[in-house]
Amino acid sequence: MNVIELKKPGGPEVLELVERPLPEPAADEVRVRAEAIGVNSADLLVRRGVYNWMPPLPAVPGNEMAGVIEAVGRDVTRVKAGQKVLVSSRELPNRGGCYAQAICVPAATVYVLPDSISAQDAVTLPNYQLAGAMLYDSGVRPPKSIVIHGAAGGVATAVIQLAVADGIVAIGTVSSEEKRAFARAAGAPHLVLRASENVPEAVKALTGGRGVDVVFAAAGPTFIHNLDLLAPLGTLVSFSIFGGMMPEADIFGALRKVLGKSLGVRVYSIHTLDHEPVKRRGFMERAIELMAARKLRPPPPTLLPLAEARRAHEMMEAATTLGKLVLMP
User: Fold this and answer.
1) Residue 323 in 3-state DSSP?
2) Would you tell me how many other CB atoms lie within 10 Å of the CB of residue 74?
3) CATH number at residue 168
4) Does the structure show a pLDDT above 60 at 243?
């Protein structure tokens, strides 16, 4: 079978298409034949060798795969051959392994999928799982209103759709009219164009002057400006480092300038749930239920052959596509 292998960290050129024997499942494992493989930002960090949860090298990257069980180990009773499933490496001892035509994983780790969810939509489910964790388990009170930046991105789209499904006021910001049109088509009800609109004024207008309970933002030099968008007792949550590392500005000084609002700042990672499988899987299982009910609708993906994994990474780093990048095996 074909897999994408990473022998050393580097640019997209270090991703190699290689042939490996088809794996045989151990007694407690299943072999999943891939139908769609997701590409996400964690894959880029693994390839660069800077991920805090790096798999040992050489490794097969890839954190999400949807497919069909084609073989089961002798002790497996929970699932059976022919079932549609999602593989998420959040359930595995090491991140990665999904850039492959097939994978063997413990039967207890897979998520069984209903027929109504396509494989291409299924590989977006980890984003919705993360969205649930961000909204309801990032150390903040359940929000009535949120702002999330980069509303055309995969995680932001998931957060907005889940918030809307739960009756939370969701405001997104975008950097271009093209992205505003994309986010609107994906279901974002309130969008602000950062280049031409005053974001604090727009947020206050949409919230009756109160501000929002939570702002989700990438770390970077403008991070603390988001404090202006928060309601009293609101929280500013950093969920991505792709905008740069945390600002050198004095965050505590900025918080003390608005002491009367009692604001908070948090850096969130779903790795907080690495040792809480029931809670972690609960967020995924709810996402599966909502997607099956058509309350969560992933935007159309960009499809590439598995052999073009390098190109997929180049496209993600250049931010030249909208929607999920999916490798087809």
Assistant:
1) coil
2) 9
3) 3.40.50.720
4) no
